Write the structure tokens for this entry.
Amino acid sequence: MGVVKSHIARRCGVALAVFVVAAGMAGCASTARNPKDPFEGFNRAMFSINEGLDVVAKPVAQGYEAIVPGPVRTGIGNFFGNIADVWIAINNLLQGKITEGASDVGRVLVNSTVGIAGLIDVASSLGLEKHAEDFGQTLGRWGVGEGPYLYWPILGPRNVRDTFGFVVDASVDPLSRVHDVPTRNTLTGVRFVDVRASLLPADKVVEEAAFDKYSYIRNAYFQMRRSALYDGNPPPDDAEEDEDDDEK
Amino acid sequence: MTRNDFFEVSAMKWFFPLILGFVLSVPSAPAQEQVVSPDALIRQITEDVLSIVREDRDIQGGDTRKAIELVEAKALPHFNFQRMTALAMGRDWKKADPGQRERLVDEFRTLLVRTYSNALTGYKDQIVRYRPFNKPAGDGGDAVVRTEVLQSGGKPVQIDYSVEKGADGWKIYDVTVAGVSLVTNYRDTFNQEVRANGVDGLVKMLSDKNKQLEAGKK
């Protein structure tokens, strides 16, 4: 438990430090136009940094996709997905979604055994569908407000609620419990590349569709998180009603 | 009855069901669209497009032009781009005069078709599942058809189509992928441009973007 606590404390510390800097930058964020994004100036700076980092990450992901055969990549994705399902199950249960949580527990049991340590997603073919939950969503379900939008180095877009959600997600990440440092770093690295590679198909669409990539990603993040919070059935958004009804 | 008459009659007998069958099987035939339910329409467009993509090595290999041609032929007639443009612009739509509206719709259509046809080139035999459809109350109005793209090892990606009943059948006016509307995602950018450079500024921004994409430059 001590390990967990120190982990949370450390990550909270980093998060808070950056948040204070962000708050300090608010004064000079004169370009802010979206009320949910009061720190736009700071966020755009972080966004540029991330775009810079991606100059390295993207080719690595492309190389991974080119070199590693598809079935192997699927196995790797399944392996990390199975580990993640444990925390997804807990979050579903914390949100009171017993059926989903039980299904996730079933997934872990089936995939860890019949699915050879999670390499094969047998559970999905048995009708136990994969979910995507995190502590940020759980906080949202509990009624915690989302707070301002932030763009973090490496992590990317997260509002304050999801930032704290991430700190908790990371603190219970099974990979952080692997004691052998080279193994831990390798696993974390492979997982990162796997995730980056899974985003490659979206890259081209976003590059072509967006006028201002920062704003396109920000809006997509808002809509996506809102949908995730309501498990794909969000109530109608007021903003959607702006449309001029007599001009259809 | 002469021999010729007999031939004609029997030919007609066969011919009519044939025409009827043909008309019924052509998706864009106006006579048929009144009876096609929104979920059947979405399923038909999806299967039409994907069955071609599955066979087409060029599209799988990233041939954008061919993907665009496919989308234009199979999907385009079932979209209401005027409503999509109005939805993307929000309140600013009212500020545009008829001439500007026509250009806005035209440019926005080009942009959407181009960017999302590209997504087809990434298709790799994923399975599309059609969620149960709840018919809206009454005859007309709006409805949402929900589908899911199953992918191995991941949460299914939800793709929802908002449809409205028009004079010639159901038309799609919004598509959301994993909760993200491909239309309203533009609203911030569009509003900002109209605020800065007016409606003509937005027309120019869209047409510049399309020219840039057409030229193959970023």
